[in-house]
């Protein structure tokens, strides 16, 4: 049983390794194409056996590895924290475009935040893992969120457990308010970033205008008299 369980969990560890490699490649490619790195940090975790058993009991899942494999989709979890809201969807699209990844479920808590204010994009992926004697399709849960969303979620998580899942009403209200402010900050930062990008784009265009002027001057040479006068000075 122990050997079976270890092999079972190993598949999820390999799935995390596979997806992490993909994320690193996307990160480098994104940096190369867009000249900036949208990924602030990536954290991965394997659900502990205790937490897995709690979930199995809570959901009434039969105690067989096959049922657990089919019904618990967050044994392997990866959280990606990015700079801007638009990066979240860019990363989602990049993952969706990978041939061996299938997105089997998507929960957009950014379009529709949870009643407590929680925001994040949750994806359940399926990825094939090749082992010495078999190939397995493994589920991986991906949470993609901004720094502000992550900041909020980690504090809310601490408060949730500090109060044993029964957060006092006034803290719930304050948390909701903080979530709204985090959302406003994200929108503001996105808008500022867009403005800066427009300026960058204009800068590039101005430079390319200079190029065109130079080319034009080559095509229509400056009169000799003017050139001589310029050379003298
Ligand atoms: P852990 O230890 O973080 O993994 P399901 O997983 O489908 O049975 P649910 O609630 O439908 O349960 O899944 P959902 O909505 O996709 O959320 C799963 C995970 O998102 C949670 O995992 C949290 O990590 C995170 N999450 C969801 N809601 C909240 C929230 O209100 N606050 C915070 N801080 N995190 C949230 P686990 O299994 O709860 O724990």
From TrEMBL:
KW Kinase (keyword) present: yes
Gene3D superfamilies on file: Beta Polymerase, domain 2 (3.30.460.10), Nucleotidyltransferase (1.10.287.860)
Secretion signal, residue range per the UniProt entry: none
GO biological process: guanosine tetraphosphate biosynthetic process
Pathway, per record: Purine metabolism; ppGpp biosynthesis; ppGpp from GTP: step 1/2
Tagged with keyword DNA-binding: no
Coiled-coil residue windows: 175-205
One of the record's GO molecular function terms: kinase activity
Positions of the RelA/SpoT domain: 44-167
Keywords, alphabetical: Coiled coil, Kinase, Transferase
SMART domains in UniProt: RelA_SpoT
UniProt xrefs under SUPFAM superfamilies: Nucleotidyltransferase (SSF81301)
Protein name according to UniProt: GTP pyrophosphokinase
UniProt organism field: Bacillus weihaiensis
Taxon lineage: Bacteria, Bacillati, Bacillota, Bacilli, Bacillales
């Amino acid at each position: 049983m122990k050997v079976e369980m270890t092999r079972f969990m190993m598949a999820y560890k390999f799935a995390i390794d596979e997806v992490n490699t993909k994320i690193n490649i996307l990160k480098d490619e994104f940096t190369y194409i867009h000249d900036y790195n949208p990924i602030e940090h990536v954290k991965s975790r394997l659900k502990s056996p205790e937490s897995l058993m709690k979930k199995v009991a809570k959901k009434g899942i039969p105690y067989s590895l096959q049922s657990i494999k089919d019904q618990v989709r967050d044994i392997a979890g990866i959280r990606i924290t990015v700079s801007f809201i638009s990066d979240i969807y860019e990363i989602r699209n990049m993952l969706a475009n990978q041939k061996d990844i299938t997105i089997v479920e998507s929960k957009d808590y950014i379009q529709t935040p949870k009643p407590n204010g929680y925001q994040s994009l949750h994806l359940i992926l399926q990825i094939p893992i090749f082992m010495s004697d078999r190939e397995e399709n493994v589920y991986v849960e991906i949470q993609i969120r901004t720094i502000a969303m992550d900041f909020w979620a980690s504090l809310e998580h601490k408060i949730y457990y500090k109060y044993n899942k029964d957060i006092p009403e006034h803290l719930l209200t304050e948390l909701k308010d903080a979530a709204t402010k985090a959302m406003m900050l994200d929108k503001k930062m996105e808008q500022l970033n867009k403005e800066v990008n427009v300026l960058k784009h204009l800068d590039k265009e101005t430079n390319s205008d200079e190029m065109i002027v130079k080319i034009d001057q080559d095509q229509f040479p400056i009169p000799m008299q003017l050139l001589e006068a310029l050379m003298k000075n």
